[in-house]
Write a structure and sequence with these properties.
Strand order of the largest sheet: 3-2-1-4
Shape: globular
Distance between the termini: 25 Å
Oligomer: single chain
Number of strands: 4
Largest sheet: 4 strands, antiparallel
Length: 134
């Protein structure tokens, strides 16, 4: 049995707190998977929690689109995650795709900033952070 890393525990805690009220746009009516549509808010929340920690300073937000991953994303859909400068990935909602995390083409994603950066994150991320046991 492998020991869970702090990030794995954080992801597990976040996944338990994802609820339909945190969904936006097309995902509000398309809830076939409990993780679907939560990638942005989960990624943003992890970003705000880890961004000042020495081991995670090189992690930046990335986004995949239908163009980069047409087999799993519909036109207009995106998938958000964090990736470090040496291509290590933190993807809190990867399980929604029912593939091994290594089969997600994270390296094809584009770096992208988090919205609402100056105010400490989006309202949804602030709500999610308030639910966590950290």
């Amino acid at each position: 049995m492998r020991l869970l890393k702090a990030v794995d525990i954080l992801i597990f805690d976040i996944q338990r707190q994802l609820t339909p009220d945190l969904l936006n746009g097309i995902y509000k009516t398309d809830s076939d998977n409990p993780l679907r549509g939560h990638c942005y808010v989960a990624t943003e929340t992890i970003y705000w929690i880890l961004r000042d920690k020495p081991n995670y300073k090189s992690y930046k937000p990335y986004v995949l689109t239908h163009k980069e991953w047409p087999t799993h994303l519909k036109p207009g859909e995106t998938h958000w995650y964090l990736m470090s400068s040496n291509l290590d990935v933190i993807d809190a909602t990867a399980q929604q795709f029912n593939v091994d995390i290594d089969d997600i083409p994270h390296w094809k994603g584009k770096p992208n900033g988090m919205m609402n950066h100056p105010i400490g994150g989006s309202k949804r991320s602030r709500i999610l952070r308030s639910r966590l046991s950290i």
